[in-house]
Amino acid sequence: QVQLVESGGGLVQAGGSLRLSCAASARTFGTYIMAWFRQAPGKEREFVAANNWRGDRPAYADSVKDRFTISKDNAKKTIYLQMSSLKSEDTAVYYCAASPAQDNAAHTLDWEYHYWGQGTQVTVSS
Predict the structure, then answer these.
(1) β-strand 4-7 against 10-13: which pairing, if any?
(2) What distance in Å separates the CA atoms of residue 2 and residue 116, rounded to the nearest whole number?
C-alpha cells in the first residue's frame, strides 16, 4: 500500500504563489506516474496537472497552463505543484495522485490513479 501525504496549502492573496508537496511511501516511486487534481466547493473533482514516470511529459489543464508547474524528485519520493499568479478560482482542495506506470504517457483521468493523498486546502483571496 502506497501512502501519499500532501502539504503546503494555505491562504494566499490573488497573484501570489504557493508550492504544494506530496511525499510518497512507495519503494519504486521512480516508476510511478503522478498527477494533481482539485475539487472546489460544490464542484466535481477536476484534473490540474500530470506527468509521466520519467517526469518529462507534463500535461496541464488549460485553466492552469503557464501558471502551474508539476515536478518530481525521485530521491525524495516527492512530487510538487508550483503555483503562481493564483486566482480566486484556484481555491479548492488539492489532491495528489500516483500509480505504477503502464506506459510513458502522462495520464489525466482520475480513475487511472490507484493512490491518493488526503488533500490540502488552497484558498486564494481576491
Answers:
(1) unpaired
(2) 9
pLDDT tens digits, 83-126: 999 999 999 999 999 999 999 999 999 999 999 999 999 999 98
Question: How many of the other CB atoms lie within 10 Å of CB of 109?
Answer: 10
9 closest CA partner among 124, 111, 126, 89: 124
CA dihedral 118, 124, 125, 126 (to 10 degrees): -150
Contacts of 118 (CB under 8 A, 6+ apart): 4, 5, 6, 95
The single residue listed with the C-alpha cell 480566486 is 88
DSSP state of 117: -
For the record, the C-alpha cell of 48 comes out as 490540474
Instruction: Give the other-Cβ count within 10 Å of 15's Cβ.
Output: 11
Q: What is the pLDDT of residues 8-31, one digit of tens each?
A: 999 999 999 999 999 999 888 889
How far out from the chain centre does Cα 105 lie? Answer: 16
